[in-house]
UniProtKB/TrEMBL annotation:
This is PD-(D/E)XK nuclease family protein. The lineage of its organism: Archaea, Methanobacteriati, Methanobacteriota, Stenosarchaea group, Halobacteria. Residues 463-482 are annotated as: Disordered. It comes from Natranaeroarchaeum aerophilus. It comes from the Archaea.
């Protein structure tokens, strides 16, 4: 792959050394030529048109014009900024200030007002309009890269120097890494092992690479410049966020202000992230100063708040204070409108930043066309490097595209060594290379791996290492890029003997998300707090049913309201109180019916965990049938049973919406796994089978808020509910385990009699005319097809045999065919709503396989991929979606 070779700066200097003045389109190129000046020279040698006209370094004239306009005119900040931007851009591309008047659709009263005001300012554009080069010995490098306004300063006669030669530039291979972190680590290692002043990094300033490289270089104590701008300064950003917090509603959460608190050195555990700032307990952090500041924000000026921040952060933000003065906001009240103005200004304009120009140079891919460093790393190089298409009629799209693509060509060839560090995929989607490559490369491609490239990843074994060796340039040694050392106890996760249902579900959905679950703590959430308290109440009621009267129920509701207050808006308290009372009453109604009177079938529990309700009423918990913890390393499972109603019946309490039995069984599928994996009922029944083998078992989910709407509207009255008559069934989902294979169950006499006596009408009519031995003979002749799809069963060999045999006995009537189909549909309904011996056997094998794989990954033998057995993870069930940047599946 090749395109025209850019002339090295030394060669360019040789071609222009004899001229009195050299005009170039890019300031870094001018500086590079000036550094090579090897003879006495009077005045400027190489410069850009703007520097030449202004007689100084280029300034951000749009910002200076904005400051002048808002100081002298009563014009809204956004309309003023919009008008200034249009005027200066049109001036740049059409050559005169008044050119915008030709575009009536872009003219209004604000534009006309601002046009006159800008014309009175000493802007660089004005100086360019008025300035003409008088020297007769002038060279222009890259004439096509100059805008019409910049060309206006050129004399009538000048020498054009092409920045490209007739030779070809062979594009180096793209070096593909698996993560952005690996790319950043490579650059930092190079900067540490070499001279930072010899290295430049080109990246999209708005990409994730920018903060990552800045943070990594700082952590490694490697000097750099050209990085974060004024608004990106950590203290500036934190101060603006503090201002935003002051005007947030009472719903502002701790997580919303965590960056500010971290910058101020206030340590608040992540478990409080979802709690409202106004309700955070003082034991978590002393934030009374912040709450007081927010309550009286209208009494403070912006400078007052700035002083408060400086005091808390122990820093000086004098530059920010100066900028507030320029904006006329220093003594303005810290109202939401003024904060909005300040935020708009910071997001629209770049403020100058004093920097020490030493160390690694960080250059923005969209702003630079030349980088004068021996070694240049190019990071990302994706479609975000592409300039946005012109959206104004005064910009010649073709000319602008030419300028952009020539800048891109020159940029790619900056330095003696160029290293293109990219990713081939992120989040499972291919990374699209910068669109300018389409113009430069004569080949089709969709991603970087379609182009000449070298993959850099984890060394897995000798064969993989041999396949992924470098291209021989010697610039990158795999041993330097990847730590090939063996995992140690300090660098790997501990092995796993057993998994909970939630961990298994997370792992099956996304092994990498599961890995982050084990490494990172999760914040408390309202539904966690609610669920725990409801569970505590259910356990408390089973232990002390006679103690729980009307006043105790109300006290429990009060406790729920108080404990969840930090998560909730005050306006929601009434609604939540009603919800909590319904949940408490539903649990009482259900437990009155199923709580075991005799608990001798279980040994005493170990008192696992605590119970907030019991502590509130100063009562003990000693029943062995509630909150029963189990762990079985032989099976590889662990969990906590909410209630053991009897030796064959387990109960679990849920605050969420009800799922039917079909959904519960379907979510626990293993071949292939469901995209909404949930193994609770299957895992608990598998464990309980080991305690009570050869017994029919059941597992019931009690959705204690499911009847909320009916109770609130008066359709149901909990005090009158008869649980035995099924009036609570809409809140219950029960899964039954039958200790036999489904084929045995389906062919049994009891199933035959149930279909004959309770099945659909035509099913009853058909089977009432045959004997059980005729029904059982079908199963002996052709094994029943294992499926939960009734149509698939009907069309299977078993289905055809069943219909043929019944017709042979009853007669070839249409109702016989219909009756047989009804019977098979009922069999599939039973199959997909319950578990049988083969299901639990298969699940035990699945557990063994998952645990073996999990331990290989925990000990470092394999990576934790993003996708699990179902390949693509369900994003709704990811806890750490923002951390899953890896494209590998």
């Amino acid at each position: 792959m090749s395109f025209p070779l850019a002339k090295p700066v030394d060669r360019l200097y040789e071609e222009v050394a004899g001229f009195d003045l050299v005009v170039v389109p890019d300031a870094p190129l001018a500086s590079a030529l000036n550094r090579r000046l090897d003879r006495p020279h009077l005045g400027t040698f190489a410069t850009t048109p703007r520097r030449l006209a202004a007689g100084r370094r280029e300034t951000a004239e749009d910002r200076l014009a904005f400051l002048s306009v808002i100081e002298d005119a009563d014009i809204g900040w956004k309309p003023a900024a919009h008008a200034i931007g249009d005027i200066l851009q049109c001036w740049e591309h059409q050559g005169t200030r008044e050119a915008i008047l030709a575009y009536e659709e872009h003219i209004n009263d604000v534009t006309r007002d601002v046009l006159d005001r800008v014309g009175a300012l000493e802007t660089t554009s004005k100086r360019l309009t008025e300035y003409r080069i008088e020297s007769e010995n002038v060279a222009v490098v890259g004439l096509d890269q100059l805008t019409p306004l910049e060309r206006a300063v050129l004399p009538e006669s000048y020498e054009v120097v092409d920045p490209f030669s007739d030779d070809a530039f062979e594009l180096p291979p793209f070096r593909i890494f698996e993560t952005t972190t690996a790319i950043v680590e490579t650059v930092v290692e190079a900067a540490q092992s070499g001279a930072p002043e010899d290295i430049a990094v080109v990246l999209d300033a708005g990409s994730e690479y920018s903060p990552l490289i800045e943070s990594a270089l700082s952590a490694a104590d490697v000097p750099f410049y050209g990085g974060p701008g004024f608004a990106d300064d950590p203290d500036h950003r934190a101060f603006v966020q503090l201002l935003r917090t002051l005007h947030g509603s009472s719903n502002v959460r701790v997580g919303d202000v965590r960056p500010v608190l971290s910058r101020l050195g206030v340590d608040v555990s992540r478990e409080h992230n979802e709690k409202r700032l106004s309700e955070l307990d003082e034991s978590a952090a002393d934030l009374s100063w912040l709450r007081s500041l927010a309550a009286a924000a209208h009494e403070y000026t912006l400078v007052d708040v700035l002083a408060e921040y400086e005091d808390r952060a122990d820093c000086s933000l004098s530059a920010f204070g100066t900028e507030l003065g320029r904006l006329g906001l220093a003594d303005a009240p810290a109202t939401e409108a003024n904060v909005d103005r300040l935020t708009f200004y910071l997001s629209t304009y770049e403020m100058p930043v004093d920097r020490e120009n030493e160390g690694v140079l960080l250059a923005d891919a969209k702003s630079a066309a030349y980088v004068d460093r021996p070694t240049v790393f190019f990071l990302g190089m994706d479609d975000r490097w592409t300039h946005s298409a012109p959206r104004r009629p005064w910009v010649d799209g073709a000319e602008q595209f030419t300028r952009n693509i020539q800048d891109f060509q020159l940029l790619l060839q900056s330095g003696v060594e160029q290293h293109y560090l990219v990713q081939d995929a992120t989040g499972g989607s291919p990374v699209t290379p910068c669109l300018y490559f389409e113009e430069l490369l004569d080949r089709e491609y969709e991603r970087f791996s379609d182009l000449p490239s070298v993959a850099y990843g984890r060394i897995r074994d000798e064969e993989t290492q041999a396949m992924e060796t470098d291209d021989g340039t010697g610039s990158f040694d795999r041993d330097r890029l990847v730590d090939g050392s063996e995992p140690t106890a300090s660098t790997r996760l501990l092995g796993v003997d057993a998994v909970s249902q939630s961990s298994l579900g997370s792992y099956v959905n996304s092994p990498r998300d599961y890995c982050f679950d084990t490494l990172l703590s999760s914040p408390d959430r309202e539904y966690f707090a609610e669920g725990n308290l409801f569970h505590d109440f259910a356990e408390f009621y089973v232990n002390h049913p006679d103690f729980v009267d009307e006043s105790v129920r109300e006290s429990v509701v009060d406790l729920l309201v108080e404990e969840t207050r930090p998560f909730r808006r005050s306006v929601d308290e009434g609604r939540k109180r009603t919800e909590y009372r319904v949940g408490v009453d539903t649990l009482v109604a259900y437990l009155d019916d199923v709580s075991p009177e005799d608990t001798a079938f279980l040994s005493p529990s170990d008192g696992w965990g605590t119970n907030a309700v019991a502590e509130h009423f100063d009562r003990s918990i000693d029943s062995p049938v509630t909150e029963r913890w189990f762990e079985d390393e032989e099976l590889g499972v662990r969990g906590k049973i909410d209630l053991v109603a009897d030796p064959t019946h387990l109960v679990d309490f849920k605050s969420g919406s009800k799922k039917g039995a079909t959904a519960v069984v379907g979510n626990a599928a293993i071949d292939p796994p469901s995209d909404t994996p949930d193994f609770q009922a299957l895992l608990y029944l598998t464990y309980w089978r080991s305690q009570y083998p050869d017994r029919q078992l059941s597992f019931t989910f009690v959705h204690f808020l499911e009847l909320l709407d009916e109770i609130v509207t008066g359709e149901l009255a909990l005090e009158d509910l008869d649980v035995e008559d099924g009036e609570l069934d809409d809140a219950l989902t029960t899964i039954t385990y039958y200790p036999k294979h489904f084929s045995e169950y389906a062919s049994s006499r009891s199933t035959f009699e149930a279909l004959r006596d309770e099945g659909a009408k035509k099913c009853q009519k058909t089977l009432s005319q045959v004997e059980y031995r005729d029904y059982a003979a079908v199963f002996e002749q052709v094994p029943i097809h294992h499926t939960t799809d009734s149509d698939e069963l009907i069309e299977s060999a078993f289905g055809e045999s069943f219909i043929d045999r019944m017709q042979a006995i009853v007669g070839e009537y249409k109702y016989v065919v219909a009756g047989c189909k009804q019977a098979m549909r009922e069999l599939t309904r039973i199959r997909d709503r319950n578990y049988f011996e083969g299901d639990l056997d298969a699940f035990e094998t699945f557990l063994d396989d998952q645990l073996a794989e999990l331990n290989r990954r925990h000990t470092g033998e394999e990576r934790f991929p993003v996708g699990g057995p179902g390949e693509e993870p369900n994003e709704r069930y990811l806890n750490h979606r923002d951390l899953l940047l890896e494209g590998e599946r």
